[in-house]
Amino acid sequence: MSRVEICSEQDIVLARQVARRAAIGLGFSLVDQTRIITAVSELARNIYTYAVKGWMTVQELNQHTGVVGLEFLFEDQGPGIDDLQMALTAGYSSGQGLGLGLSGAKRLMDEFDLHSIPGQGTIVRVVKWTK
Amino acid sequence: MSKHYEDKGNLSDLYDEWLITMETSIWGRQEIEVISKIESMGLQIFKALQNHIPEEGLGVELPKIITELAKIAQQGKLTPKETARFAFSFRPFLKRLTSTATVERLNQLLDEVGIFSLEVFFNTSDSIIHTQRQDLLELSTPIIKLWEGILVLPLIGTLDSKRAQEVMEKLLNAIVNYESKVIILDITGVSTVDTLVANYILKTAAAVNLLGAKLIITGISPEIAQTMVHLGVELGNIVTRAVMADGVELALALLKRKIVDLNKE
Amino acid sequence: MDKTSLLKIGNVLILSIEGEINDFSVVSMQEMLLGEVKNTSAPGVILNISRLEIMDSYMARVLSDTARMIRLMGSITVLVGVNPMIALTMVDMGLDIKEVQTALNLDGALEMLKGLRLSAEYPEESA
């Protein structure tokens, strides 16, 4: 399990490197590696852009059938997301970027969960399983 | 004959008796080679059960032997049932082994051996299926370089999402490797074109565009055309043709080339 | 700045993006590029992204913004070097880079620029 603090743009790069290493370590295919790193980049950048500071945690998951996966948690104490439905719709943006961060990450990963309380913070959980 | 063997005998006596019981059960249909291999494994197992009983688990010897057995089984020589039956055939002999372990422990061990043998059997099956799947994928999606800058991919068979994904990756890599501007995806051999296949085609076209190349779909039969319209399948801007030859003509035109009849010149 | 490198072929500019672009470096990259477009009156700019490891929505935005700026200055942008893995991820995400066409390689890009330039001269072309 690794933890990366995200508060500068350089940390986004670091988060990607950590994600890449973890993905290669679990033997993900090249295209799945790309998906994971891209999703991580989106979610880490969201923290940097909206929350100023947050954390990414990476953890290996094991199903009892022997399938392994990677779980990423992105937590911050930022402003939170007001309208969840809107945020998950492609094209929504309250700031910079194309607003595809959340919905893009959701489409790239196998599992996607989000909890946000406006004014308090946000947690995003994404998982990708090896096939 | 059996009365004579009631007391704890030495190993080779037990083994001979075991051989006799096995003769009537699993090797009826086996080849001589297989039989002698299994027979010698039987002896190894007897030895392992007698001498190398670990406190917990299966230890080192038994898994090795069982894995060997699974290899033979995988070559089609033994069914899962026969494999398990082989493992449990030692049960009647356990209490007669001069082993340091208790009979309870030996019975428990044998149960574990039985389960392990099935596990190994299925794991090997899985990896064989995986390899065969790869081979099948290679065979059924040949990418043909038709001409400089034109690739043809005849798609054959059914398309599930996993296969679609693999074919898409193969296709995109081929475009980059061959530096092909046009790729013709022929779906004459695809049995059904439902919304899943259509979505896959849309995705592929988008990805091909992103690479800077162009996708042409050929092999749209009247039946497929009707099905697609009835299902409401939209292919948008993707260029389609009924017959591959038409697709080839279009591809050549895109590359500013054409086929001429030399006689007419 | 080793994050990008700028070359010229004929009067076409080729910008290769090699390293990490961030909010800080993107402005200077665009300034430098647009300055060159102005000075050389380059009819076309080729953006080479073969060194990019991934394409996320931020990078896509950077590229389409840059292309829009280039267009405002009377030039045209073509993208080159899209990696198949990136293409797949972009399609999965539904990501698009507006304002930019892609070419497979440098030759294709130069040809494309010629074609686009010609069509741009006709009044039928919509802005």
Write up this protein.
The complex is a heterotrimer of chains A (131), B (265) and C (127). Helices cover 40% and strands 30% of the residues of chain A. Chain A is of the alpha+beta class. Chain A has one domain: Heat Shock Protein 90 (2-Layer Sandwich). In chain A, strands 1-2-3-5-4 form a 5-stranded antiparallel sheet, with helices on one face. A 5-stranded mixed sheet of chain B has the order 1-2-3-4-5, with helices on both faces. Chain B is α/β, with parallel strands linked by helices and 265 residues long. The termini of chain B are far apart. Chain C is α/β, with parallel strands linked by helices. Chain C has one domain (4-120): Transcription Regulator spoIIAA (2-Layer Sandwich), CATH 3.30.750.24. Chain C is built from 4 helices and 5 strands; from the N terminus they run E-E-H-E-H-E-H-E-H. In chain C, helix 1 (23-40) packs parallel to helix 2. Mean pLDDT of chain C is 86; it is low at 122-127.
Strand content of chain C: 15-25%
The number of domains of chain B: 2
Q: Treating each run of at least 4 consecutive H or I residues as one helix, how many helices of chain B?
A: 9
Q: How are the strands ordered across the major sheet of chain C? A: 1-2-3-4-5
Are there runs of chain B of 5+ residues with pLDDT below 50, and where?
1-7
Biggest sheet layout of chain C: 5 strands, mixed
Stated plainly, the CATH topology of chain C is called Transcription Regulator spoIIAA
| Strand segment tally of chain C | 5
How many domains comprise the coordinates of chain C?
1
* Average pLDDT score of chain C: 86
